[in-house]
Write a structure and sequence with these properties.
Layout (H helix, E strand, L loop, with lengths): L5 E8 L5 H6 L7 H11 L4 E5 L3 E8 L4 H11 L3 H8 L1 E4 L1 H11 L11 H15 L5 H20 L9 H13 L6 E5 L3 H12 L4 E5 L3 H10 L3 E3 L4 H4 L5 E4 L10 H8 L7 E5 L16 E5 L4 H10 L1 H23 L3 H25 L5 H32 L5 H12 L3
Parallel strand pairs: 5-6, 5-8, 6-7, 8-9, 9-10
Antiparallel strand pairs: 1-3, 1-4, 2-3
Helix pairs in contact: 2-3, 5-7, 5-14, 7-14, 8-9, 14-16, 15-16, 16-17
């Protein structure tokens, strides 16, 4: 870690920002790599981007010289980000940033506390950053440790004993509206992971009729068959609105799918029966203007919070136990990282970086001319070599205090590094 370099987290989530603000800076699945490349090209060596229906967060190693890079690059990738972050954003540094990462991975910071999907989403964000080359030894260490603590939370506390999710809360809301779903018809729009959760919970709630539609016909058919429903071709889903009492949308679409026009037409065939729309997509699938129509009721992710809070209160003791575990584990990790070992790690990295840059300068000096792209490739290659060589010994020193077989193991590793590298 270079002198002055720190772990930072910038974010916007469901606790502080309304859905209209969150969807403004939500990163579409196909845009993650472009965002990571933008930050990497701007000079940030280590950064992970996490974007879900309830949060957009950046985790990065930065120092005073590249702190401004984040704001500038964010402004390029999402012009509205400056205003959104200024009004709703949060910024965590060092221990607070690591604690926040652990809480997110452990689902303690989720809209639905205890939901299992977030850990997979954090791992996917980490894997994507690794593939893009924006994870070095420091973020690797922080994220791997966060994953281990999150696993502890799920296995050693009761926070995950009763699986819940945004999909289950959406169906619970439908149950509160209708009392019983046995005489209702539900249309699930979107057959991805969230759509499957919804279909599963609707079947468990004994929904009368289940309709499933997706751009991917085979996926909609598989999902409908699995949960006793009927697939609806994507070209015909608008006509299915006339049959549905409940429409739950989770489609990954860059634009609105349902507006007043489709619903006004569907109402003509419904004989004044109301229709309830639950939009759990981000960006949203349903235009807010539909609420101006008589008999149309719309709920979005923000509206699910009251139902989610009821679930939280029922599992309060398990959540408190999980929070205590996280606090202890974060404290142990941070003490191991800084208590006596921080200086030796910084010294080792500094020495290796000096050797790398000195030898690279000699090599460039012997070349009459070198293409700028090739120079960048040399820089990246040598940085990666140094990073991989140092990864295991540095990680052993950093985490020795928290996971050592004996209390002296971390200090012993530190002493050996000092001797071997003449630090």
């Amino acid at each position: 870690m270079n002198a002055g370099e720190q772990l930072l987290c910038w974010g916007v989530n469901h606790e502080r920002a309304p859905i209209a603000a969150r969807e403004t800076i939500a990163v579409a699945a196909g845009q993650h790599d472009a965002w990571l490349k933008g930050f990497r090209d701007a000079g940030l060596a280590e950064i992970v981007l996490l974007s879900t229906c309830n949060r957009t967060e950046l985790y990065a190693m930065i120092d005073a010289t590249n702190d401004a890079i984040v704001k500038k690059t964010l402004g390029t990738m999402a012009p509205q980000s400056g205003t959104i972050f200024a009004e709703y954003g949060y910024r965590h540094r060092e221990t607070a940033a690591f604690r926040h990462l652990v809480r997110v991975a452990s689902s303690l910071d989720s809209l639905v506390v205890g939901e299992p999907q977030i850990l997979g989403q954090v791992k996917s964000a980490y894997d994507r950053a690794c593939a893009m080359g924006t994870v070095g030894r420091w973020l690797h260490g922080y994220f791997q440790r966060a994953f281990r603590i999150a696993k502890q939370v799920r296995t050693e506390t009761g926070v995950g004993s009763q699986p819940v999710s945004v999909g289950s809360v959406a169906v619970a809301l439908a149950g509160q509206i209708f009392g019983t779903l046995e005489s209702c018809t539900a249309l699930v729009l979107g057959a991805g992971e969230m759509g499957e959760q919804v279909a599963q919970y609707l079947r468990s709630a004994q929904i009368g009729r289940l309709l499933v539609t997706s751009r991917t016909t085979t996926r909609a058919t598989e999902l409908a068959q699995r949960y006793g429903g009927r697939p609806v071709p994507w070209v015909a889903w608008e006509s299915a609105l006339a049959e549905a009492d409940i429409v739950i949308c989770s489609a990954a679409a860059p634009h609105l799918l349902i507006g007043p026009g489709q619903l006004d037409q569907a109402r003509g065939c419904r004989q004044d029966r109301p229709i309830f729309l639950i939009d759990i997509a981000l960006p949203r699938n349903i235009d807010e203007a539909v609420t101006k129509l008589n008999g149309v009721y719309l709920y979005d992710l923000d509206d699910l919070k009251a139902v989610a809070d009821e679930h939280l209160q029922m599992r309060r003791a398990a959540v408190d136990e999980a929070i205590a575990l996280v606090e202890t584990a974060v404290d142990q990790h941070w003490r191991a990282l800084t208590n006596g070992n921080g200086p030796i790690v910084a010294s080792l990295h500094r020495k290796c970086e000096e050797i790398r840059t000195e030898e690279l300068a000699k090599t460039f000096g012997r070349l009459a001319a070198i293409d700028p792209q090739l120079r960048t490739a040399f820089e990246a290659c040598t940085e990666a070599i140094v990073s991989k060589i140092l990864h295991d010994p540095i990680l052993s020193v950093k985490e020795g205090g928290a996971e050592a077989a004996s209390p002296d193991e971390g200090r012993l590793a530190s002493d050996w590094l000092r001797r071997l590298f003449r630090l």
